[in-house]
Specification:
alpha+beta; L,D-transpeptidase catalytic domain-like; 33% helix; single chain; eight-stranded mixed sheet; 3 domains; 377 residues; two-stranded antiparallel sheet; 14 strands; globular; 10 helices
């Protein structure tokens, strides 16, 4: 009887061992499920084709470059994303095409930065610039290198090169503009060293307005706006004291509008002072022309046909500032202004004018004197 139960128990135990071994074998044979990490698309997609030139007759006729009916429709979509350099925004715009080597370098540097290795990213981007065979490729890589360098002069130079080569795209202008504002807070090295300057020693009864509008034009042949003199000299107010030494820019400020990339840059010589993401005219109504700023107005009224819509009226689309262009044959009533519709920035929704966010047009207004050349292309 004992032998019988021992035999039965042995069979049960052997059965359990067989079951366990078989189950382990089955588990070992199953493949592990691995979720692949997302791969960032390398920069290099072709840039959006630029719009065809607008016919001169597309502008709204106007007797004077006052704020006029040359702007109009409100925006229709959400607020701009404000995405940084890693993700250009602005509709159909995409990163400019670059060579394979440079694109690979930019992508590798982005991965290094994400992994917490900015020094490695800086080295990779410098190597990419050395491999570049086109100025535009080097400028694109330099755009990503700019915030990594500890040299303020090089930082501004790299940004300026990218803007001159027109390789800054869409919402990237927001990030570039932010970097320029940071540099402008400490201009002694990055700005003074890049500009052609003359010295002026403040005397009794001088004010910045008097100097910019009366003294500097006579002495140096230039009429820089108060805001530009302020940032060149690192001034935080308009107050001056006798004996104070001022650095005076002797090259005119100029504005360049990139229609293909929805950007506006203020240059002094080849040096960028400010950059902005902008809105333009629908149906190619923004003319490809070089204009001159003739009028500047704060809190402008809007002359829309026979109607005068005062500042502050919800129907006034001009925002807080107006910089009107001198009329040209067939092109009247155009200018740069703020907007009641900030969601239209980065899009083509105006009647032809250049739209800016109110805070940014107020900033630009302080840098731009009457007579400033505006090249739109």
């Amino acid at each position: 009887m004992v032998l019988k139960w021992w035999s039965v128990g042995s069979i049960v135990i052997l059965g359990l061992v067989w079951f366990v071994l078989a189950e382990q074998s089955t588990v070992a044979a199953r493949p592990l499920s691995v979720q692949a990490a997302p791969v960032a698309a390398a920069p290099g997609a072709p840039a959006m084709a630029r719009s065809a030139p607008a016919p001169a007759s597309g502008a709204v006729p106007q007797a004077a470059p006052a704020p006029s009916g040359a702007d109009g429709a409100p925006g229709r979509t959400g607020e701009p994303s404000g995405a940084g350099l890693a993700a250009p925004a602005g509709g159909a715009e995409s990163a400019p095409a670059v060579s394979a080597d440079v694109a690979a370098g930019i992508a590798a540097a982005a991965a290094q930065r994400q992994a917490g290795d900015p020094a490695g990213a800086e080295t990779t981007l410098r190597q990419a610039i050395q491999k570049a065979t086109r100025a535009s490729d080097a400028a694109r890589a330099g755009l990503f290198l700019a915030p990594l360098t500890k040299d303020a002069v090089e930082h501004r130079r790299l940004i300026s090169a990218a803007l001159l080569e027109d390789v800054v795209v869409g919402s990237e202008y927001d990030e570039v503009g932010r970097q320029l504002r940071e540099l402008n807070r400490s201009p002694g090295t990055s700005l003074q060293g890049a500009l052609k300057l003359e010295n002026y020693t403040v005397v009794a009864n001088d004010s910045l307005w008097k100097l910019c509008n009366k003294v500097f034009p006579t002495r140096f042949g230039q009429s820089p706006e108060v805001g530009l003199v302020r940032i060149v000299n690192g001034l935080h107010s308009d107050g001056l004291h006798v004996g104070q030494l001022l650095k005076v820019p002797t090259e005119p400020l100029r504005i360049v509008v990139s229609m293909g990339h929805h950007g506006l840059t203020a240059f002094v010589g080849e040096t960028a002072v400010a950059a902005y993401w902008i809105g333009l005219g629908k149906e190619n109504r923004t003319p490809r022309e070089t204009f001159v700023i003739q009028v500047k107005q704060e809190d402008p009224a809007w002359f829309n046909g026979s109607r005068t819509i005062p500042f502050g009226d919800p129907e006034n689309v001009l925002g807080t500032r107006w910089m009107g262009f001198e009329p040209k044959d067939g092109a009247h009533g155009f200018g740069i202004h703020g907007t009641a519709y900030p969601e239209s920035i980065g899009k083509d929704e105006s009647m032809g004018c250049v739209r800016m966010r109110n805070a940014e047009v107020e900033e630009l207004f302080e840098y731009v004197p009457r007579g400033t050349r505006v090249t739109i292309g």
